[in-house]
Structure formats: structure tokens, C-alpha cells
Amino acid sequence: MDIGAQDESKLKTTILMGSSSNNRTVESTVIVEKPMSSFIPMTKLIVILSKFLHPKKMHVIKKIHKGYLDKKFTRREMVNLIRKVVRDDDLIVKTIKYFNKKAVSKALFRAHVEGQLKSEIMANSDYHYTNKMMHYAFNRYLQSEIVR
Q: Which residues form the RST domain (predicted)?
């Protein structure tokens, strides 16, 4: 599977579904979101911390991050050094929680917009328009035998 060619935030998975009654195997491709964790990209953490910390501390943190990128030390060592510079674990924890809350709200908004679009498609009474839009919106999720 070539993940580099796809969107970095999504993985493509192939699922084989079998049926015991007719001994057929149906192949279906599903796009699955990558698992989310409480980690925040270091560049975004640095940008957010720059709003709260003194510029001298930010200069030190940027040097630490550059050292990590140059493979001078591990991620764990980088995190410990940044914690020593910041001297306030609550600030780091609040920053990570803020970032995760923002990501969750974006995902909810996208799901709402998609649901709103689907309800508008179904509410439109023009058959030809609705038929084309339904094929566009739903056929990629249906098995090929059903679409015909």
C-alpha cells in the first residue's frame, strides 16, 4: 500500500466480506482515518508557546528542536529539555488540550457540513438532479453489484 500517494491523514484499507449462503467474497475499499493521539506536531507547539513565553526562551526551544531534527538527541530528550526551559507543565498540557479540542471541533464541523449536503440532496424534488447527486454521493460506498 502506497501511503505517500494518498492524503497523509487517511489510510486506504481493503476489506474482504464473505457470505456463507452463496460462498462469494466481495471486496470493498474503505478510507479510514489515521488513529489520533494526544501528540501535537512540535512546530505547532512551538508556535502556540511563542504566544506565552519570553522570546529568549523561545530561541532556546527552537535551538532544541533544531538539535532534534539534526539527530543530536531523541524525541524524549527534546521533550525533557523543553519542559526544563518552559518550567510550567500546565502550560504545555493546556496547549496540547487546546490543540486536540480544536481538531475535534474541525472534524465535527466537517461531518455536519457533509450531513447537511446529503439532506439537501435528498430534499430536492427534481428527479434528474437528485439521481445524479445521489450517484455521486453514495455509489462509491456501495458494492458494484448494487450500483448496476
A: 33-104
- As a whole number of angstroms, the distance between CA 126 and CA 123 comes to 9
Q: Is 87 left (phi over 0), alpha (psi -120 to 50) or beta?
A: left
- Taking the C-alpha atoms of residue 64 and residue 81, their distance in angstroms, rounded to an integer, is 7
What's the distance, CA 66 to chain centroid? 25
Tell me: pLDDT of 63 over 90: yes
Whether 135 is covered by a domain: the verdict is no
Compute CA distances 13 → 37, 66, 75, whole Å: 20, 35, 30
Tell me which residue range forms the domain holding 83.
42-97
56 and 26, same domain (yes or no): no
Among 46-50, 103-107, 142-146, which range has the highest average pLDDT? 46-50
> Does residue 119 sit within a domain?
no
* Phi and psi angles of residue 95, each rounded to the nearest 5 degrees, phi first: -65, -45
Please state the domain count of the chain. Answer: 2
